[in-house]
Amino acid sequence: MKITLIGTGHVGLVTGACLAEKGHRVICVDNNRPKIAALKAGRIPIYEPGLEEIVRNNCRKKRLFFSTNIKTAVQGAEVIFIAVGTPLGPDGAADLTQVENVARTIAPNLKGYTVIVEKSTAPVATGEKIKAVIKKYAPADASFDLVSNPEFLQEGVAIQTTMHPDRIVLGVESKKAEEVMRKLYRDFNAPVIVTDLKSAELIKHASNAFLALKISYANALSIICELVQADVTQVTKGMGMDQRISPHFLNAGIGYGGYCFPKDLNAFFKISEDIGYDFNLLKEVQKINLGQRDRFIKKIENELWVIKGKRIGLLGLSFKPDTDDIRESPGIDIARRLSERGAILKVYDPKAMGPARAVLPNLPRRGGGKIIFCRNPYEAARQSDCLVITTDWPEFKTLDLPRLKKNMAHPTIIDGRNIFSPTQMKKLGFVYRSIGRV
Ligand code: UGA
Question: Is the CB of 288 under 6 A from ligand 1?
């Protein structure tokens, strides 16, 4: 099928590449010229395992194209995906400027029948607005159906979660549009759920908010566990064995970050408020999440007393493993706060050093703090009074711990992701503090 994808962010680019991989002819459009030039030259702007190979492969096979010309890309497309950003606006609501712009730009260029897909994460009833804008600007002989097809990909495993999704959600208003979308996803071997437009839009916000709620629940439990000297990993393991609960997204730690959960929770709260419901549960989820960062700093203070002038190694700047994405990353926030308090920070991340340098300037701070970017975890640990772990990268789990210990001025580890066993760490002679465990 002939597909046009507008917006080459994480969702747009991965979706476009995966649809091309399944044999469709896909044009990915973006108004960011340097980005499109880089993609045409085979350079991928984000780190996402497996993506570069799929992009190159499908460009070579002439199934995947990149363009800045939205008008020509729209003409002849059977399906047009709107996958532009819906960032957090100043009032906590999703800023839908880009979605509106795209709707207005594509409308006059439509010919015959086209299915237009709302892929961007947007508040319930956005589809109605998109439809109204397109109707207003489309030529009289053009017809279209709007479909809501939310994306559930996870960064770091985006290819896997797009190629093999748990479900494909299709919010449709006509049988014809449903048939087009079913044909598009024919080779995806995933259950399809067909709903009305608004229910599909809600499934996305409801899912992200529920996953965030699960994490915050586990984090609240970790506080209880610390108060009574129990082990949160055992508690959540026992809970997760109940199939109704499942073990996923129950890992306590320094809380969730990333571009999606914080933004989507805000947007979901705001839209609920606007339509007449105070979804206060979501506020509590956010409060618990941010509280974990404060508690983590407190743990560091408990071990070091005064932060000012102390050397602290920090492992993990991306918001989760297997990505270079540092948006809303707890690791970046912790690094900033420690350096503001005058720590001499030695930071390391396997993939996010470049993006981190841009937001954590390597300059002496007020209060004497400074940030040193290290080449590996052992360098970050060297001469450190304490080492903190803020992202659960697999390579941190297999560190040579005796070597790490030898490098440190004092063998104290504060682990915000519970990647080591407390018993093992004690045996090795570390002062080891983690989350919700003794
Ligand atoms: C999330 C959703 O999981 C995707 O389904 C959704 O498509 C995506 O948002 C989106 O809306 O685009 P993502 O932000 O890539 O995906 O990352 P997650 O794997 O969900 O992790 C989010 C954060 O939660 C990370 O900081 C991670 O470290 C943290 N987390 C995750 C925990 O603290 N504990 C857990 O048990 C699981």
Answer: no
**Which of 13, 46, 153, when mutated, tests ligand 1's pocket best, judged by the most ligand atoms within 8 Å of its CB?**
153
Q: Per residue in 19-61, pLDDT tens? A: 999 999 999 999 999 999 999 998 999 999 999 999 999 999 9
Cα separation, 383 vs 28, in Å, equals 49
Beta strand pairing call for 143-148 and 344-348: unpaired
- Confirm or reject: Cβ of 256 under 6 Å from ligand 1: yes
Q: What digits encode the pLDDT tens for the residues 386-422?
A: 999 999 999 999 999 999 999 999 999 999 999 999 9
- CA–CA gap between residue 231 and residue 388 (Å, rounded): 20
Start-to-end CA distance of the chain, whole Å, equals 57
CA torsion through residues 37, 43, 46, 51, sign? positive
Residues 6+ apart with CB under 8 A from 238: none
The reported pTM is 0.96
| Rounded Cα gap, residues 80 and 162, in angstroms | 18
Spell out the residues 6+ positions from residue 156 whose beta carbon is closer than 8 angstroms to its own. Answer: 48, 49, 320, 321, 322, 323
384: Cβ below 6 Å to ligand 1?
Answer: no
Of ligand 1's listed atoms, the one at least distance from the Cα of 155 is 15
Burial of 280 (0-12, 13-18, 19+ CB in 10 A): exposed
Query: Which amino acid residue places its CA nearest to atom 24 of ligand 1?
Result: 256
Residue nearest atom 7 in ligand 1 by C-alpha distance: 152
Based on DSSP, count helices (H) and strands (E) in the chain, helices before strands. 18, 14
**The token pair that represents 131 in the structure block:** 């439809």
Residue type, 65: F
CA-nearest residue, atom 6 of ligand 1 = 152
CB 378 near ligand 1, within 6 Å = no
CB-based contact 146:116 (threshold 8 Å): yes
CB 27 within 8 A of CB 49: no
Q: How far is the CA of 133 from the centre of ligand 1 (A)?
A: 32
Q: What does the angle CA 431 – CA 392 – CA 302 come to, to the nearest 5 degrees?
A: 30
Query: Which residue's C-alpha comes closest to atom 30 of ligand 1?
Result: 256
| Cα separation, 174 vs 66, whole angstroms | 30
d(CA 59, CA 40): 8
Tell me 366's DSSP state.
Answer: G
CB atoms within 10 A of CB 206: 14
Q: At what angle do helices 126-137 and 97-106 cross, to 10 degrees?
A: 30
